[in-house]
Write the structure tokens for this entry.
Amino acid sequence: MKKLINKPEDVVVEAMRGIEAAHADLVKVYYEPNYIVRVDAPVVGKVALVSGGGAGHEPMHGGFVGMGMLDAAAPGAIFTSPTPDQMLEAAKAANGGAGVLFIVKNYTGDCMNFDMAAELARMEGIEVETVITNDDVAVLDSLYTAGRRGVGVTVLVEKIAGAAAEQHRSLAEIKAIAERVNANGRSMGVALTSCTVPHRGEPTFSLPDDEMELGIGIHGEPGRRRVKMAPVAEIVPLMVEPILSDLPFKAGDNVLAFVNGMGGTPNVELYIVYNELNQLLKSRGINITRNLVGSYITSLEMQGCSITLLKLDDELTVLWDAPVKTAALRWG
Amino acid sequence: MKKLINKPEDVVVEAMRGIEAAHADLVKVYYEPNYIVRVDAPVVGKVALVSGGGAGHEPMHGGFVGMGMLDAAAPGAIFTSPTPDQMLEAAKAANGGAGVLFIVKNYTGDCMNFDMAAELARMEGIEVETVITNDDVAVLDSLYTAGRRGVGVTVLVEKIAGAAAEQHRSLAEIKAIAERVNANGRSMGVALTSCTVPHRGEPTFSLPDDEMELGIGIHGEPGRRRVKMAPVAEIVPLMVEPILSDLPFKAGDNVLAFVNGMGGTPNVELYIVYNELNQLLKSRGINITRNLVGSYITSLEMQGCSITLLKLDDELTVLWDAPVKTAALRWG
Amino acid sequence: MAITRDNILTWLIAYINVVNANADELNRLDSALGDGDFGASMQRGVQAIGNKMQAIADKDIGTIFKTIGMALVSAMGGTSGPLLGTMFIQMGGKSAGKQVLTLAEWTETFQAGIEGIMMRGKAQVGDKTMLDALVPALESLKAADETDIVIALRQSAQAAKKGRDDTANIIAKKGRASYVGERGLGNIDPGAANAYLFLNTLAETLGMESTD
Amino acid sequence: MAITRDNILTWLIAYINVVNANADELNRLDSALGDGDFGASMQRGVQAIGNKMQAIADKDIGTIFKTIGMALVSAMGGTSGPLLGTMFIQMGGKSAGKQVLTLAEWTETFQAGIEGIMMRGKAQVGDKTMLDALVPALESLKAADETDIVIALRQSAQAAKKGRDDTANIIAKKGRASYVGERGLGNIDPGAANAYLFLNTLAETLGMESTD
Ligand SMILES: Nc1ncnc2c1ncn2[C@@H]1O[C@H](COP(=O)(O)OP(=O)(O)O)[C@@H](O)[C@H]1O
Ligand SMILES: Nc1ncnc2c1ncn2[C@@H]1O[C@H](COP(=O)(O)OP(=O)(O)O)[C@@H](O)[C@H]1O
Ligand SMILES: [Mg+2]
Ligand SMILES: [Mg+2]
Ligand SMILES: [Mg+2]
Ligand SMILES: [Mg+2]
């Protein structure tokens, strides 16, 4: 294992200290329990957006704390959902009196820990609602399983719901918008290499030199199947077809196209993927009216990418364009 | 070799097409010869900043084209400096009548190709000045060698000189500012793994599992020496001491600290490096008053990082803070 | 014979060591089916138990379990944290105020813990989770001969072991392992592996104490 | 005997094939000392030569060299592009208007090309660059017997080969190889390797044509 770290058990706290030192203008960082809140929290009268999840997906979620996006984020251990008391303290620090929306990726652990946190927060008189993201078409959805995983769409939910919260809309409205984003977004990922969890010290899975894992999760969970390594012109359709057919997306739809790097894939490759995606969608008459290209929801040093498509309407587009000022996303 | 690409020889053009499709609001992209110009070029009366270099370092330079930074960028083949006619056309497209500043990293090939381009541009009546960046302390500087390499400080030169150009200052003034940034900046890199040049298909160098290359260049050129893999708390001093002693940096100095990822190193590790750097500089009484943490000047999928320190004065700080709107850097 | 408060403290200390000794293996098992963090999470869990040892040294069994459960919830995270935390909290509720547990009382206490896991995680036997080791252990206890508690606990641990091994033949329906589906066949569930360690340590602790 | 315009066109076509056949090896050599792109750059270079073949088919030697030189500058980039481009442009200047080159004229033309490289790249013999193959080849030509041009060209290619091999013993002072310093010992310079291929192809072309 080769990583720029000290001890595996110190990875999360040392990265938080780095964020604290680098972004004191944007966030305040707290330890034991660990959470990050925007520097001007609580914003009185604004619904607070609180997310969290296992570490190892940076910049998600800590890099999305700030004006126009999250009010607070709680990082767990690497790939391990945070504990209820982290989310409770984060919610208390972020709550501006208008209620708190938990944004939770659909994993068994995340759902349970956020549930417990919501129970505790309500006991302290904080109004809490939860939106669960589950956009990964690689996993077959079913009532009898853990259901679809929350992946790329989570970034878009946090941005768009964050913009709505900035307009001081009600908790119910913001929750509805967040759910609309989740309902209109679909994702699929591919891994060329495995990530290595620091305390484990060895790759989570091993891939032959000429194979890739299609439908990979963001924790190195195996995907749909192994396929032979192929040019991007063949990989992108393998990722996009299940997305297009699932929602389904149709000719004339306006979409936000999000090409996300898994952590070990450089920027130049992501633009090659985006070029391929752009051509494919054009050939289907689907219009990319907004896009995001970069490594925003990663899986440690895994090489690979994910593609997320979100069907846009006018309201979602305006909210996407609204100003945001965080460590990882900034415009307007 | 595992990469999200099609044919090795199409990497550069397909990435440019991706940039063209994703950032039509920021840039125009031209082919044969290949270059990228800001969407509103030429900006009349403004000195135009033109940079370029081999591809494989993305987002540098194409991701830095836009308001407040570069007017144009010419990407060569992977790790191969672009040709004079690319820079000539880029200069012609960017020239707003106030002259052109070439920003060139100090490599033999880059210097020669930009020199030829400058000769050609002058023949067409365009005033051209050149600033050469050479901030890499890993290479011993000497009149009898190729001299120091231009690395991380190039990003800072492009941002800061770009802000000065936006104020419609003269070519001479902007050149002087760019040279001041270069003169006050020093860098050093480390690689944990090799990059793989697409047309070569194999890692440029091989590193044992327990070693890293200290003083690595951004093209996979070997560095100062191989050292045993170590915790970040030991690696960071190995990188920073040569920087501090070279300029030298002293207690009380205000610096911009730039922790750069080499392409395959995820965000979370960069913040751990930043935390270590912050502590080390604090212990020396050096104040980090500005910072940049991210993968901005990469070496394909190489794992590793570089650290750049730039001594700041009030003017450089104001120029750093000035608005910038490019694909890769955006604020204000 | 019965399980005393002191037996339980001894058991917990032994279990701390067992988890630390098996953490790498638990991470490895979780890599095959999930995300490779189960051993690390368990280590944070038993470290939290260690930190509570002083505070619980003079408490009744119910308070011991409840305190441990809350510590696990706060320290572990992931899927296993809330589940094992809930198990201990529910066991604490059932054994509130007790200084010793008869075999029947331990069976009831353990059953309450398992019900807590089912309530929180909504999994069933056969889903390839820790329940596939825990529930057979409970069944074994229920069927056990009241007279020799050590033998009953050993049989219960053996039932957990068999349940653990049988998870290799199950296609997971709950938790992260459900994403791999059929490709997870042949691998045993890490949560079930831990359940066996936990129950075996209890049996061994009681076995040691009774031969003293 | 002399070098005709047609000899030169034949030589260039042969050289295109030689570079394509050796591109991987040139990349490999450049990985050890530099950045691994020299073979790919040379391939873009000879592709540009190929694209010009029709345009230069009926031109004089000076125009042929100059056209090729400008094509290399526009197609290659890197360090080798401006250097080899300048070499050809300068050779074109020296041989302007010529339809054939005597051995003495080729020697002068080649010398002008080498001087172009030195002017542009500011390197000297002994810096571990292409000059370490080119300059010995020039010296050999200067000392050659005027009567047999094929032998003279063969000797000149052999001198380049020796120069190429000797670069393994040099610590680089110019170009990217200078960054590796002593660690580059034992590796031959890719630019020198290409210089040998270039001159050897010329000798072989003339040898073939003269035995026809
Ligand atoms: N719904 C569930 N009910 C009971 N146990 C479960 C459930 N889902 C998962 N588990 C158990 O949790 C173990 C994994 O725990 P952990 O590694 O903490 O989960 P994760 O990393 O997926 O959040 C599995 O081996 C399984 O025994
Ligand atoms: N200053 C110089 N003068 C002459 N030849 C040089 C000089 N610097 C480098 N070279 C030659 O260029 C070759 C490398 O070319 P190339 O790979 O295009 O360079 P780079 O990739 O470093 O820009 C070297 O093998 C060497 O022969
Ligand atoms: Mg986990
Ligand atoms: Mg090069
Ligand atoms: Mg796990
Ligand atoms: Mg090279």
